[in-house]
Amino acid sequence: MLADPVHRAHPYPCFTVEPAFSPEVCDRLEGLFDQDLPWREHGGSFYEVRNCDLTERLDPPFLTALAGRMGALTGLPLTQQVAVTAQTMAPGQRIGVHSDRPLVGYESARLVVQLNRHWQPGDGGVLQVHDDEAGSRVLASQPPRFNSAFGFALHPGSFHSVTVTAKPRRTLVFNFWHLGNSPALGEAVQALFARMQFGELPRSLDQDRTQAEATLAEEQTYLALVVATALQRWGLPESVILAGYQAALGAPMPAEHAAATAVTLARWAARLHVAGFDLAEWQGLSPVLAAIGPGVRSTVAAFGRIASPGSPAQGQPGASRVGGRG
Questions:
Q1: Domain 6-181 homologous superfamily, CATH
Q2: Which of 30, 197, 242, 298 is 20 to 30 A distant from 78 in Cα terms?
Q3: Is the distance from CB of 264 to CB of 168 less than 8 angstroms?
């Protein structure tokens, strides 16, 4: 399973493997395309494919082992959850340049496995790696040869595309979740900030808020209000809400401050809500989570219990999504 990978560091960490799986596994995977599947068509100028979810049609032990192998190859703390999408492209179709950056609760790593027998140069359908959204340069490419695979971590700069294919192209896309960006976390963040009303924040913020909104960028002041909302919904006192708002605007907060941990978690939750998951931010937060307790890493969604025991986050959970455009 994914033996002898070839790793690349530029323009972003990725790897290729060929062959990806044993002949027996390939036979089973290839046979999925011969089943009666609930295909969905996607047309337009960007994402020209049809796809369907095959997760329930694959053996759980195989998916668990694959998640473990992907964690080892990417160096990411992945959960055991895996979602599998079958994808076909007809002659003349393509996929434009995109990064599939992970929003909160979205998958954080992907393995694209090709199942195209008798592919020849000139048949198209080549996965390309770029260093910008314009796709002006192709820094690596992976032809869709049978039993070849391309793996990578998703982030804002993981730009890739698929060239126009000249004959039918079959692909399986395996999606994996980072421990710090599980679907449960996505639901918790969505619930925490459901139906936000900044007018409900304490009046003690008014003076600082008026001054900040007159002098600072809207993106910064909005994020500070989201931080304050998290702290308020966790049931923390006004003094902590004010300290969190000021810290989000750049005011220093000593690490020994009684509310420093709660404010750190609120800022992380706000960033997840506003901008999605960022691996560097998670790595910076890891020491804070480790200090709170080992259970936090596997139940990151419990923001309320982390910041203020007995005060769960409010709102209704939402659904996570799977991209799978590789």
A1: q2cbj1_9rhob like domain (2.60.120.620)
A2: 30
A3: no
